[in-house]
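forwarding from the other thread:

> can someone predict this with thymidine-5'-diphosphate?

sure thing
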Amino acid sequence: MGVFISFEGIDGCGKTTQIKLLRKTLEDRGIKACITKEPGGTEAGKIIRKMLLDSRLFLDSYTQLFLFVADRVQNLNEVIRPALEAGKWVLCDRFVESTLAYQGYGLGIDLGYIDYIHREVIGNTWPNVTFVLDCPVEVAKYRLERRRGESMAQNGISCDRYETKTLEFQEKLRKGYLELVERDPERIIRVDGSKTETEVHALVLRFLEEKKLWPLGI
Ligand code: TYD
């Protein structure tokens, strides 16, 4: 079996960069890594993602919840499980904790209910480690605005349902993530996401080493 790592945090926390850095480090050591993301890690998921992120479309909170879960089931069965069975590392950009943070802490759906659905859907396929990249909402907002400026220049639109929410909403998410870390400190690890990319990467590697997942005696 491979190793399953998920990365979490508010929009603009730097997950995507860290995932790319980790893949590079693994591949430099000859370890195969598969990157996936939620929502949108599969063909069906890409269609679901379009619906979910289009803020012009009204979606009830529960509709959002079930669409994220539907996307996750596809990703688990089409991408994550086959890759783990093939002995690969899977680096997943968001997983269950995103639903707990955004639909639970953010939109107010009962956390116990979200846990209940996932127990059924995930079975034994829980990440070995989940990194929560934690940073002040202002830092994340600044990074996001820089990124959005670039993507506006390319696509001319920006209408992401969650990125455009208020700072108050982002604070709720951040607080939620920190509570999730406290709830399951063995698996869910807070990393200071306000540090530089290189420093955060070093923290990630150090933790994997402590967990004896890395460097795997190579
Ligand atoms: P995306 O553009 O992938 O953002 P990011 O690069 O920050 O991950 O959009 C995903 C959005 O969907 C993001 O704002 C978080 C949200 N989301 C949820 O609300 N619930 C979920 O379960 C997941 C997986 C994502």
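The helical segments are 15-28, 43-53, 61-85, 96-106, 111-122, 137-155, 167-183, 197-210. thats all i got for now
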